[in-house]
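In response to reviewer comment 3 from the previous cycle, which asked for concrete evidence that the modeling workflow produces usable outputs, we include below a single protein chain processed end to end. The sequence was submitted unchanged, and the resulting structure tokens are shown without manual editing.
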Amino acid sequence: MDVKLSTRELEVLTEIRTGKTNKGIADSLNICEGTVKLHANSIYRKLGVKNRVQAVNYFFKPMNQGMNTA
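The workflow returned the following structure tokens.
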């Protein structure tokens, strides 16, 4: 995977992964809710996905492949 996310985009994606709403992410990162939406849309475009679930699965699942979940 050779996708370059900015530091802030990675922070937003990590917050998305926890299941927070845009408002919750904005509060956590001390940014406007509209800015969260802009970052999320940029993430989706860069990853070639359409929504939060796809973005999280695309970006974080490769890290978990081969891990023992027992």
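Helices lie at 7-17, 22-29, 33-47, 52-64. We consider this sufficient to address the reviewer's concern, and the full set will be provided in the supplementary archive.
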